[in-house]
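Forum: Protein Structure Q&A
Topic: Joint prediction for protein chains with partners

I've read a bunch of threads here and the consensus seems to be that you should model interacting components together rather than docking separate models afterwards. I'd like to see that in practice. Below is the full input, 226 residues plus whatever partners are listed. Could one of the regulars post the assembled result?
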Amino acid sequence: SQQGEEDPQALSIQEGENATMNCSYKTSINNLQWYRQNSGRGLVHLILIRSNEREKHSGRLRVTLDTSKKSSSLLITASRAADTASYFCATDTGGFKTIFGAGTRLFVKA
Amino acid sequence: GAVVSQHPSWVICKSGTSVKIECRSLDFQATTMFWYRQFPKQSLMLMATSNEGSKATYEQGVEKDKFLINHASLTLSTLTVTSAHPEDSSFYICSGGLAGTSYEQYFGPGTRLTVT
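Posted by a regular:
Agreed with the consensus. Here's the joint model:
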C-alpha cells in the first residue's frame, strides 16, 4: 500500500508564481525525499530531508518536514515552464524501502 | 551523481512471450536494487527488492513466478516478465541503492513495455 498522499493532485500556475505541494504519510520515517518526473521519463532526485530536520533548501526549492503531523511540503519559487512535471514524495521507513506518494502534476504556463 | 541505466528503453512484445529488462549501475556498486511499476498517470509501485546474490523480496500482490528478478552482481539486476499479457503493459523503473547513511536511490530512465 502507498505510504504517502499528496495534494493537490494537479496544480496549474503562471510562470513566476510559487508552487506548493503537500505530502502526508502514515508511519514513522527515517527520511523523506522529493522527486520530479517529466512525462514518460525516469525520476530525478530533488532533495532529501531527514526525520530530525525541519527545513531544507536547494536553489529554488524549499522543503519542510513536520514529523508530528506526518507531513511535508515542497515549495518551488519563481516557477518556470520547465518546472512542468509530476512531483512525488517518497518515504524511507527503514532498510532502504521507499514508498511513493500519489504525486502532484504541476503545469506552469508561460 | 550515480548513474543507473536500463535496457531496453522501450519494447513491444506479443502476448505469451517473455521479456527481459536490464538495470545497471554504471559508476557505483548497488548493494540493493529495486523494481517499480508505473501505470499511466499513477505513482510508482514497488514490485520487489533485491540484494546481490540473494533472492528478491516481492511486495504483496506481485507474482514472483511471473516477474523473475536476478541480481547476479553489484552492478546488474534483471527483471524478466514471463508469459506477458496486455495488462503487464506498463513503465518499469529500477533503482540502485547506495549503502550508507543517506539511503538515496538512483533511478534508471525506465523501460516502456507494451504487450500486444
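The two ends of chain B are 37 Å apart (CA to CA).
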